[in-house]
Amino acid sequence: QVQLVESGGGLVQAGGSLRLSCAASVSPFSAYVMGWLRQAPGKERESVAAITWGGRETYYVDSVQGRFTISRDNAKKTVYLQMNSLKPEDTAVYYCAAGQEWPATTANAFTSWGQGTQVTVSP
User: Is 61 in contact with 83 (CB distance < 8 Å)?
Assistant: First the structure.
């Protein structure tokens, strides 16, 4: 059973930054590809960023390339999403996700996800 708990969401002005964290209760954590999904109202859930088991490879959806950075700490069983230069269109519920497929460019690549954390970017 994979349990994922997100934290770090909130309200920020356009151009600001937020850092999301996700604590995983799974062993071994290093056996999982980790990622962040997001879902805005009326839109499908999309894979925003993903990172391989050892952290050597990453994926970003085009709309966040150069602004978001995903990282993981396998010793702490935690994955992070640093979000800079936030835009109103980044407003969504962000979900931490775990899977065992690579590449993980779609939400379907993941088999488990958390409850989500709201990120709201005001103009």
Answer: no
